[in-house]
Automatic annotation (TrEMBL):
<feature type="transmembrane region" description="Helical">
    <location>
        <begin position="140"/>
        <end position="167"/>
    </location>
</feature>
<feature type="domain" description="Anoctamin dimerisation">
    <location>
        <begin position="2"/>
        <end position="126"/>
    </location>
</feature>
<keyword id="KW-1003">Cell membrane</keyword>
<feature type="compositionally biased region" description="Basic and acidic residues">
    <location>
        <begin position="285"/>
        <end position="300"/>
    </location>
</feature>
<feature type="domain" description="Anoctamin transmembrane">
    <location>
        <begin position="129"/>
        <end position="283"/>
    </location>
</feature>
<dbReference type="Pfam" id="PF04547">
    <property type="entry name" value="Anoctamin"/>
</dbReference>
<protein>
    <recommendedName>
        <fullName>Anoctamin</fullName>
    </recommendedName>
</protein>
<feature type="region of interest" description="Disordered">
    <location>
        <begin position="260"/>
        <end position="300"/>
    </location>
</feature>
<dbReference type="InterPro" id="IPR032394">
    <property type="entry name" value="Anoct_dimer"/>
</dbReference>
<comment type="similarity">
    <text>Belongs to the anoctamin family.</text>
</comment>
<dbReference type="InterPro" id="IPR049452">
    <property type="entry name" value="Anoctamin_TM"/>
</dbReference>
<keyword id="KW-0325">Glycoprotein</keyword>
<feature type="compositionally biased region" description="Basic residues">
    <location>
        <begin position="271"/>
        <end position="284"/>
    </location>
</feature>
<feature type="transmembrane region" description="Helical">
    <location>
        <begin position="217"/>
        <end position="233"/>
    </location>
</feature>
<dbReference type="Pfam" id="PF16178">
    <property type="entry name" value="Anoct_dimer"/>
</dbReference>
<keyword id="KW-0812">Transmembrane</keyword>
<keyword id="KW-1133">Transmembrane helix</keyword>
Length: 314
């Protein structure tokens, strides 16, 4: 049965290079240059994926030191100040395939097998999405895939309920009575003063349309959707735990929140003001010198007095 099911799903599988992880489970740890011998590095060019390289570049830009003020500002503060409009990581090459299909990069594979309307019936290459965009975006599209798959049985039941309403609309007694002009029910005005009496047969179309969506079968549909919500939640929990284990996210911690660029800018401006005030005070306390560089008598006695007072301070 598993072989037959695999053959039936073959047309829905995306043409993505298979990433054979093997049966061996490796331990994961934050990268450190001091422990290169402990990592399974087959090639330095492919050791970090696209997402990790983008994060490294972003950290370099975020931690760049400003030369003039000797403060760690980074690209985020420069964006807040208006020096740059935006900063974002570049994609890995063009999305159009120019050479052979075997030489496609990850972006081209995702464009051909995932991010286009002609591939709507195929399964999502979640592992490749995670490799290119990161774990957060990969988990989002994994959730979207589970949600879309479970909407298929819900939509089938909804179509059946709608079909039941279409089949029984001509035999619905309230609709027949409202649409029968011979009965000629006269209704009270809908408002005071300005509105006139009206006939119930004018609401025939509304009654027939409401029966399509509100019929005895909708009670069964409401019960079914209540059970469907519980099933969807449990299915997503199962899928999330499976992906967390395979993507080594079981021991992940939240990233440290860095101060906002505007807040860092305000602190930097305050620090610069304090430094300017200190410089002004130093200039005031310095003895006045003549043009030849010698200190006058009053300033000499003042300098001696200040030095004697400073010597008594522990």
């Amino acid at each position: 049965m598993s072989t037959v099911w695999r053959k039936l799903k073959l047309p829905f599988q995306p043409n993505v290079p298979h990433q054979d992880q093997g049966s061996t489970k490796f331990l994961s740890h934050c990268f450190s240059r001091d422990k290169l011998h402990m990592y399974n590095i087959t090639s330095k060019d492919t050791f970090f994926d696209n997402t990790t390289r983008g994060r490294i570049v972003y950290e370099i830009l975020r931690r760049t030191v400003c030369v003039r003020t000797c403060q760690t500002i980074g690209i985020s503060t420069l964006i807040a100040k208006g020096v740059y409009d935006a900063a974002f990581p570049l994609h890995d090459g063009d999305y159009k395939v120019t050479g052979h299909l075997e030489e496609r990069n990850d972006r081209q594979v995702l464009f051909e097998e995932w991010a286009r309307y002609s591939a709507f019936y195929k399964y999502q290459p979640i592992d490749l999405v995670r490799k290119y965009f990161g774990e957060k975006i990969g988990l989002y599209f994994a959730w979207l895939g589970v949600y879309t798959q479970l909407l298929i049985p819900a939509s089938i039941v909804g179509i059946i309920v709608f079909g039941y309403g279409v089949a029984t609309v001509d035999t619905n007694i309230p609709s027949l009575e409202m649409c029968d002009e011979r009965l000629n029910f006269t209704m009270c005005p809908l408002c005071d003063g300005a509105c006139d009496y009206w006939h119930l047969s004018t609401a025939c179309g509304t009654a027939r349309a409401s029966h399509l969506f509100d019929n005895p079968a909708t009670v069964f549909f409401a019960i079914f959707m209540s059970l469907w919500a519980v099933l969807f939640l449990e299915q997503w929990k199962r899928r999330q735990i499976s992906l967390s284990f395979s993507w080594d996210l079981t021991g992940i911690e939240e990233d440290e929140e860095h101060p906002r660029p505007k807040y860092e800018t305000i602190l930097l401006q305050k620090q610069q003001r304090k430094q300017k005030k200190k410089k002004k005070k130093k200039k005031k306390n310095e003895p006045e010198k003549q043009e030849d560089g010698t200190v006058t008598g009053k300033d000499r006695w003042r300098q001696k007095l200040l030095s004697a007072m400073a010597a008594g301070v522990p």
